[in-house]
Amino acid sequence: MAEKLKLELSEKYYNEALKMIPGAVAGIRRPYNFVPGEYPIFFDNAKGGKVYDVDGNEYLDYLCAYGPIIIGHREEEIDSAVIEQMKNKGFCFSLVQPVQNRLAAKLIELIPSAEMVVFVKTGSDATSTAIRVARGATDRTKVVRCGYHGWHDWCVEVKGGIPQKLYEDVHEVHYNDLDELEDVMKKHGDDMAAIIITPVGHPLAEKVQMPKPGYLEGVRALADKYGTVLIFDEIRSGFRFSLGGAQKVFGVTPDISVFGKAIANGYPISVVVGKEKYMKVLADKVFLSSTFFPNSLEQIAALKTIEILERDKVLDVIAEKGNRFAAKVKEIVKNSGYDAEFSGAPFMPFITFNRDKDQLYKKLRPAFYTELIRRKVFLQPYHHGYIAYRHTDEDLDYTANMIAEAFGELKKYI
User: Fold this and answer.
1) What string of DSSP letters covers 330-381?
2) CB 398, CB 372: distance < 8 Å
3) Domain for residue 370, yes or no?
4) CA neighbours within 13 Å on the CB side: how many for 111?
5) Given phi > 0 = left and psi -120 to 50 = alpha, else beta, which region is 48?
6) Rounded to the nearest 5°, which phi and psi values hold at 341?
7) Do residues 252 and 293 both lie within one domain?
8) Burial bucket for residue 190 (CB in 10 Å: 0-12, 13-18, 19+)
9) Residue 237 maps to a domain
10) 314-334 and 296-311 helices, crossing angle to 10°
11) Helices 76-88 and 296-311 meet at what angle, rounded to 10?
12) Measured CA distances, 202 to 31, 220, 382 (Å)
């Protein structure tokens, strides 16, 4: 039986932060998004595939900072390239540095939809830029969305502080439901500027979904039929499913794509790429500017990350490890005796409990993840995980065994 973790310093820092910072920590990192009282709240350091909290507990890190860590924490080769730029060149100027062009050329080489590129900082920056480009290029207003696209006014789920008029032209549909999308397009297609979807489905707290046969092709066909810009939100899937994104894997090319997270192994950069006929509106008609968008440290990190991903065939290695892990865990879940499901193989593993009329899943989910965190496996109850290059076969075998143990402990909670 695994004992509850000692988290005194985490709790101390949390209570201290509550007096100075609303919610103590930002959004998705707050304790209610985990299991309050069981998970750490403050980390101290990390290396490779492991992370350490302020109380000295060591964890196998499968949340990977919610996705950016594709190789591992504190990768010396990447950090050294960034430090060299910082020491010898600088990184924040009134004008841009040539590294901008090198990174843009590399992205155009790799990503099917990339004819032109702009650099921003966050996923929300990128999706909002893509929507602005689509509206500017089409002179239309309405948007169809499918998936999580960030915290900006047009797409955030929590509507506090946002007037309805700022999102009333945005229509939400469900992933893999082509009929629902077609109905919306029949009603509003003449004024539909963009369809923005995640090519891989990852709704909050729900299993990860791959596209059904013909789904992405059907979305592409509907966009073409109505003259609507098709945007793929590849913030999570990009530089993980392949160097060209999920669009390359599934063979469907959007008009505009957004990438972030894994592109720079943790450094803050995201990109908007797309066909020239749409992207060129950013040259004059559509405004985009920020003091920090051109900073070169993140661009250096992205180039070095991509170099390593290519050189060491990182994504192939992760896929092999992830598929092996998935086969083992699927068997454990199948034999657990609980109505649970494993999804997201090989890159984005997630164990979910199916909804039931007695709402037993609401007890099983926190119980299961309590047992996992006590066994030093850092996953999130409401968000899929990630497998990084530095996760070893031994790490993954240990994790699978701890998953089996966690299922074995659930009876005491019900």
Assistant:
1) HHHHHTSSSSEEEESTTTS-EEEE---TT-THHHHHHHHHHHHHHTTEE-BT
2) no
3) yes
4) 32
5) left
6) -145, 140
7) yes
8) exposed
9) yes
10) 70
11) 150
12) 21, 20, 11
Which pLDDT score, from 0 to 100, does residue 164 have? 96
> Exposed, middle or buried: residue 149 (CB in 10 Å: 0-12, 13-18, 19+)?
buried
Q: Comparing C-alpha atoms, which of 348, 288, 292, 333 is closest to residue 128?
A: 288
In angstroms, rounded to a whole number, what is the distance separating the alpha carbons of residues 398 and 407? 14
Task: Compute the radius of gyration of the chain from its Cα atoms.
Answer: 22
Residue 205 zone, left/alpha/beta (φ > 0; ψ -120 to 50; rest): left
Sheet holding 170-172, edge to edge: 116-120, 270-274, 256-259, 229-234, 192-197, 142-146, 170-172
Identify the domain containing residue 48 by its residue range: 8-73+314-413
Q: Which two tokens stand for residue 9?
A: 């310093």
| Residues ≥6 apart with Cβ < 8 Å to 177 | none
Residue-wise pLDDT for 182-225, tens only, equals 999 999 999 999 999 999 999 988 999 999 999 999 999 999 99
pTM of the model: 0.97
CB neighbours of 408 closer than 8 A, spacing ≥ 6?
none
